[in-house]
Amino acid sequence: MPISSLNSGFKNTGGTYSEITGLANNVTANGLYSYVEYEKSIGSSTNTIRSTARFLNYLTTKGYSTYQSSGTYYATMSFLNTSTWNPDIFSGCQGDVFLVAGGGSGGSSAHSGGGGAGGAFVTTGFVMPTSPITVTIGAGGSGVTSNRGNNGNNSTFSALTAIGGGGGGRQFSSSNESAGFNGGSGGGGAHYSGTAFGNGGLGTAGQGNDGGAGVNGTGTGGGGGGAGGPGQDTRTSSSGRSNAGGIGITTSISGSSQTYAGGGGGGDDSSQPGAGGTGGGTAGVTSGASLSAAANTGSGTGGTNGGLTGNGGSGICIIRFALTIPSIFGA
What Rg value do the Cα atoms of the chain yield, rounded? Predict the structure, then answer.
């Protein structure tokens, strides 16, 4: 975008305005950015720096939200659906990226496993692309009846990929059917006839955790893994009821503290289904349908006793840029 186009919309109050210095020309070594607009008084060669507020307002017109923390201003943008992003003034600059994939759905059987959370991670100092890109937000795994859960879909930002959460296992005479799927976080396993347990699916290193196993004879499935911790494994409890979904991860990248990517709780055929993991994972149920996870949480859903499982939560992407604003800027 031509530098001159940045002048549009600024009111001339009697002085004449020079060009606005483009951000790409003010990138410092640590990847922060500055913005300078000068007002030259008539008949004077003195340049007066205009306000911080004007710059922050300009960013909002480009679709960014802004906040201040510990004396530093930040600009953020959240992607809730697959869309095209133009780097524009942040082309080639460094920023932080929080990326979450879609969560998996729980299994459907008497003793089913919870769905695993979508992979979630923060990358700092990421060098932004220099041309428009498609930011992909992965959908959650669709719900099932009398079957293994479905994996969530991947989310991508430039060269970064978050892996969809694993679907939960179902009770069956085959260990393969009873095991949870691998994913960003693994789906919980379901116990199956004649053997000790159905394994939880494996999580992806740096993105999530393993799902818990389901044990034969206890009537419970394992919890789906969460981005912040593994799904509970029914082998760890004498009662066989430790089957909650794994906890999610908390980030303040958007300016407020939010938790994402919790695992779904294991299903149960009696009275103690597993709770959903913090961050949006939904609980397992003893009958009927389990709840779907909220959109843009990347969370897994609970297993059911043969009913329809809820859909996994879709993913999200949040990018953030720290702004270097000279202290001589006004309010």
Answer: 24
Alpha helices, DSSP H, located in the chain: 52-61, 175-178
The answer for residues whose C-beta is within 8 angstroms of residue 271's C-beta and 6 or more apart is: 286
Is 91 buried (19+), middle (13-18) or exposed (0-12) by CB count in 10 A? middle
Q: Of 298, 312, 293, 290, nearest to 145 (Cα)?
A: 290
Q: Is residue 181 within 8 Å of residue 123, measured between CB atoms?
A: no
Does the structure show a pLDDT above 90 at 145?
yes
Q: Which residue type sits at 116?
A: G
Give the count of beta carbons closer than 10 Å to the beta carbon of residue 49. 15
* Three-state DSSP state, 88: helix
Say yes or no to pLDDT of 19 above 90: no
Q: Average pLDDT over the chain, rounded to whole?
A: 81
* SS3 call for 175: helix
Q: What is the rounded average pLDDT of the residues 141-146?
A: 96
Q: Is the distance from CB of 248 to CB of 299 less than 8 angstroms?
A: yes
Beta bridge partners of 36: 21
Q: Which residues pair with 157 in a beta bridge?
A: 160
Q: DSSP assignment of 100-146, as one string?
A: EPPPPPPPEETTPPPPPPPPEEEEEEEEPPSS-EEEB-PPPPPP-BS
**Token output for 306:** 């043969």
Residue 104 near residue 166 (C-beta atoms within 8 A): yes
Residue 107 structure tokens: 């299994």
- C-beta separation of 180 from 202 below 8 A: no
The SS3 call for residue 61 is: helix
Cα(60)–Cα(226) distance, rounded to whole angstroms? 34
Which pair of structure tokens corresponds to residue 32? 């922060």
Query: How far is the C-alpha of 190 from the C-alpha of 180, rounded, in Å?
Result: 7
The residue extents of the domains of the chain are 65-323
Are 261 and 103 within 8 A, CB to CB? yes
